[in-house]
User: Fold this.
Amino acid sequence: MSQPIRVAILGYGNLGRGVEAAIQKNKDMELVAIFSRRDPSSFTQQVSAPFVHVSELDAYQDKVDVLVLCGGSATDLPEQTPQYVQQFVVVDSFDTHAKVPEHFAAVDAAAKANNSLGVIATGWDPGLFSLNRVLGESVLPQGDTYTFWGKGLSQGHSDAVRRVPGVAAGVQYTLPNEASVEQVRQGERPELSTREKHVRECYVVLEEGADEATVREAIVTMPHYFEPFDTTVHFISQEELEREHSAMPHGGVVLRSGETEENNKQVVEFGLRLGSNPEFTGSVLVAYARAAHRLFQAGERGAKTVFDIPIGLLSPYSPEELRAGQL
Amino acid sequence: MSQPIRVAILGYGNLGRGVEAAIQKNKDMELVAIFSRRDPSSFTQQVSAPFVHVSELDAYQDKVDVLVLCGGSATDLPEQTPQYVQQFVVVDSFDTHAKVPEHFAAVDAAAKANNSLGVIATGWDPGLFSLNRVLGESVLPQGDTYTFWGKGLSQGHSDAVRRVPGVAAGVQYTLPNEASVEQVRQGERPELSTREKHVRECYVVLEEGADEATVREAIVTMPHYFEPFDTTVHFISQEELEREHSAMPHGGVVLRSGETEENNKQVVEFGLRLGSNPEFTGSVLVAYARAAHRLFQAGERGAKTVFDIPIGLLSPYSPEELRAGQL
Assistant:
């Protein structure tokens, strides 16, 4: 740990701020700069490194070991990751599951053509949840895998609630159906319907004069969003909404339930309870930034995913220290 | 998956049988032989491969891709792993935590001198629990790690119960203290005493004429074994003992509780509920046998631990298949 790993951030939304916070907790890392498409003079927040316009990235090629890409998966990362991997070792949290192979191919080609390396699709789902799905299926080939999400704030469903006439403000949480989770934990392997997997909970501030029963009915019967689920609607004040529902919690659980011999049930469980989704995702990105730097230094090139990276490389400790302290 | 991976087992106790069962569930593997120090003619069980005396191992050097060592950590593995890695790619479940560095050094030297590879200390603790401790500490550098074991049958404590005068037969289970686990799950970071971490439960068959109260008192006050814990003693019949308590369940949970910013608690949890401890450990050994074979084929040499091995190598699927299906 003589020389700190020099990290830069591209994109300064919730995730970028999460990465910034995580770097401060890792003593072997140093935040060199925060790059953004916005005009640096428009930033007024207190931050831990200089704000720099993205157009100046070229000048940082020799000053940055890993560039952490904090853009969105819909339009930013499909362009940014293949582009910036040409100049930097990069890490992203691309999360459009169905487009991972396409994204991997683009990053892999660009990285190999430029003697570089990019780690894609880190975070927790995809990311740590993916790791645990593969781990569970590898040690228990005969079995079923279950993923439950929540308790988590869902942006899309919160937006849907806010579009209902009579709603002034509101948030929506997705929660695992606890009875189903417990059933799987006990080694049963049920086929679960959509309704049996998750429930939805809404906290709504009514507009002046709006009718509770009408609003509740409009929400719980909304096709696709709420109709397939058991949905609870709580009416609260604007003040309570701001006080109790401004965090971005999330989490979930991956369960592998299998059998080794006829009567021996084996259950592997991995769960997350996250007080802040973007801060945790940022923390995962930073651990994989450390691994990316080490892989690059060891001569690895091309695109990598969480499946390709030994867990030991995420740790600031050496293999010797890990063997002595953690095995 | 054209050529099956040819696996052999050395040692045929509970763990060896667990490995045998696991190989049958992995279609890309083939069990070549089961080696034992016992006289093969003394084996009467139905098994899925020939029994061979350990003295004939030499003749199998070209017929076996991975030798899975199923001996004990006290006396077998410290000798066997450095010895057999000279001729075979090996995997073991060495579990004397404090002696891992010494064992690693011996296996590493023998493997490198003979152009071979050995994966040591797989299984679940050390093994999957170790992986999750390092993962948790890497993504949440500021926090505390908790390991709770159970519900699990403890051989040493069962023996202690059976030595109490008046006890005809019995078993002991270690269980996590559920209130403490729940406290950690909720993001608190308590300092837990021994009593607060685990509880002990005994199922005892009394000898004819023995007194329940006397036996209970002798158990719960036994220094070191039971006195530091809250211990419950159940008296049951020999028939119930055989019917309900002949399995070898185990498991436990590793929790990392950390903070990313002042008020944001983040909890990562990995848990196992195992109907059969040796069969699950055997399943983990077999997944790491696959990884060992692939690492060796890719040119890796020396000793490896779970920290050095990408999770993707445990899976029978290719990197392309994993990216398309699991990310």
Observations:
- The radius of gyration of chain A is 22 Å.
